[in-house]
Amino acid sequence: MNSIVHTANQNVREDYVPGAADFLALLKPRVMSLVIFTAFIGMVMAPGEIHPVIAFTAILCIAVGAGASGCLNMWYEADVDARMKRTADRPIPAGRIDPQSALHFGVALSTASVLVMGLMVNVVAGALLLMTILFYVVVYTIWLKRRTPMNIVIGGASGAFPPMIAWAAVTGDVSLDSIVLFSIIFMWTPPHFWALSLFACKDYEAAGIPMLPVVSGEAETRKQILIYTILMLPVTLLPWTMGFAGPVYGVTAAVTGAVFLYLSATLYRNKDIPTAKKTFFYSIFYLFILFAVMGGEVVIGRMI
To answer: What transmembrane ranges does the database entry give (predicted)?
Structure first.
């Protein structure tokens, strides 16, 4: 740990004063935006009512907690980020923010988000948020990521918790329906990130991260993407079959899932980077449209 901090500190630019944009970058805003969206849909899907101020507070706490997790991830992985072209310009390896400041910033935001969630929303939502932050930082970042190619399979759970947290913010508990929302994101994460790892493989190899294509090869990675896509599709239909999402969602899940399966099968047969990129970017659209239609259908149903 000391060697990580020492190495990063050597790159700190003493003549540079970090601004708001640098601290915002520590929060991984692009990742945060998807977290906020899935959490919001989880809140919309939850039965019962929640005061708008409490709802806003809950979403804000989830966003801040997610950002804090990203910040602590960047702090711990400053040495890895410096060796990867894709991440070398992040604030710590680029020398715009020193690791100690990033650590303090991440811990402060984590603590504040959990305390506010627990005190102003409810204890269950606060406990779930704390578990999510610890899972991402301790289990995924510190324990799994540098040790096993299955890092993203297990560690991906951290990105699947937000709709469950938002659900708990409304209801005060965890139900089977909220576990299904968690499961959709959990099963979606491996094919999504493995598609990314196919065209970022050299970066991961240079950084010493045992992502699946680095350890087991690209052919095995393409096979696992196809397998996990097949396993994911029935899970995405559960909201419809269980009755808490309507037929429009069911059709959308079936059609967009078929496209995802087609891309995964094409990627399995082909060895080109463009197909991997197409699969990766489609996966983002896919998750967005699933949750958008699910939430939109519920909102419209309540209005009529």
So the answer is: 31-48, 54-76, 102-121, 127-144, 225-242, 248-268, 280-300
